[in-house]
């Protein structure tokens, strides 16, 4: 019998049947809140831990009904004929969502208890069993809600569900230790090996992250680490940086493989809905040949570490076997 857990957390969304976030078929729970601000972030709606209001212009018919109903006078018609949200006035009451007949407003985020999250995850238990899958907690940065994360992971483990987390590892090690007894796999991003470049691209230096990876490698707990490297053309894909990443990982024993994640721009619509400027609009996804060249470069080192390229790119998966 599981003890009833009432702690609540901030969740962005829950996605089912993922085959790109760990082994087998997985349910992915996106936590809200992140201390980083990566320029290529594909879930900008997860960066702030609070629920946020999005406006989807293509659904709006400019009926103007919402304008007079906003209690804070935060809505107006802009010169380019769309609804402008004055975010300095908006108090996130979300009344405009109910008023709009066309679904042009969207709330990003919800509050859920540990039990509610575990119940949602448990609905897919049959799929986990038949595919060796499980749950993956993503974000945002899930470690920012570490007590809530620990309780969700612990509840899953008590039900025999395989657990993984996707993390930047930008956190205090004493917090990371709280979840280690309940996690089977950690997916950790290494975004740049140079600390100054890392800060320019993500808003934080990488010293804590690399230090935490080294500490994790000598942890007494039984989990494996999979390193993910986003490949952002012109920003972190120099041979020097990638070889430096490989050298760092090669010294560690818990790392199962390095996975390259080709940059994509799927978050652009969300940036627009939140009135956030997308800084990388002039950068294209790397080509298949570019990724093949990087894999080949890393494999020339003849280390035993496996190098993979993630094929979960909906706009023309990079299949390195062809
Ligand atoms: S109520 Fe909805 S459709 Fe009408 S102007 Fe406001 S956002 Fe647009
Ligand atoms: S969430 Fe509330 S305060 Fe913000 S724009 Fe909508 S109605 Fe106005």
Explain the overall architecture.
- The termini are far apart.
- The chain contains 11 helices and 13 strands.
- The chain has 322 residues and is an alpha/beta fold.
- Strand 4 (75-77) and strand 5 form a beta hairpin.
- A 9-stranded mixed β-sheet has the order 7-1-2-8-9-10-11-12-13. Strands 3-6 form a two-stranded antiparallel ribbon.
- It binds iron/sulfur cluster (SF4) (2 copies).
- The site of one iron/sulfur cluster has 13 residues, from helix 2.
- One iron/sulfur cluster (SF4) binds next to helix 1.
- InterPro entries: 4Fe4S_Fe-S-bd (IPR017896), 4Fe4S_Fe_S_CS (IPR017900), Aldolase_TIM (IPR013785), BssD/PflA/YjjW (IPR040074), Organic_radical-activating (IPR034457), Organic_radical_activase (IPR012839), rSAM (IPR007197), rSAM_sf (IPR058240).
- Residues 51-80, 81-110 form the 4Fe-4S ferredoxin-type domain.
- Residues 20-310 form the Radical SAM core domain.
């Amino acid at each position: 019998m599981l003890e009833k857990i009432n702690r609540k957390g901030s969740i962005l969304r829950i996605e089912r049947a993922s085959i790109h976030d760990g082994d087998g078929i997985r349910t992915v729970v996106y936590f809200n809140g992140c201390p980083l601000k990566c320029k290529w972030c594909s879930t900008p709606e997860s960066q702030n831990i609070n629920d946020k209001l999005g406006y989807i212009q293509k659904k709006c018919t400019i009926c103007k009904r919402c304008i007079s109903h906003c209690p804070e006078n935060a809505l107006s018609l802009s010169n380019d004929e769309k609804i402008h949200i004055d975010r300095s006035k908006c108090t996130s009451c979300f009344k405009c969502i109910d008023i709009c007949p066309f679904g042009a407003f969207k709330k990003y985020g919800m509050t859920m208890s540990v039990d509610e999250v575990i119940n949602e995850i448990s609905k897919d238990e049959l799929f986990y069993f038949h595919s060796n899958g499980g749950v993956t907690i993503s974000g945002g940065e899930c470690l920012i809600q570490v007590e809530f994360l620990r309780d969700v992971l612990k509840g899953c483990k008590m039900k025999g569900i395989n657990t993984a987390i996707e993390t930047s590892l930008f956190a205090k090690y004493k917090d990371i230790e709280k979840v280690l007894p309940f996690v089977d796999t950690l997916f950790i991003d290494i975004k740049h090996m140079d600390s100054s470049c890392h800060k320019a691209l993500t808003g934080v230096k990488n010293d804590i992250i690399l230090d935490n990876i080294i500490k994790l490698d000598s942890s007494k707990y039984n989990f494996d680490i999979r390193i993910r490297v986003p490949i952002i053309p012109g920003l972190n894909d120099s041979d020097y940086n990638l070889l430096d990443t490989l050298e760092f990982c090669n010294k560690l024993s818990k790392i199962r493989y390095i996975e390259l994640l080709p940059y994509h721009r799927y978050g652009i619509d969300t940036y627009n809905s939140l009135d956030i400027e997308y800084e990388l609009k002039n950068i294209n996804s790397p080509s298949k040949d570019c990724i093949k060249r990087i894999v080949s470069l890393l494999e020339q080192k003849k280390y035993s570490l496996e190098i993979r390229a993630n094929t979960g790119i909906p706009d023309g998966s990079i299949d390195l076997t062809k």
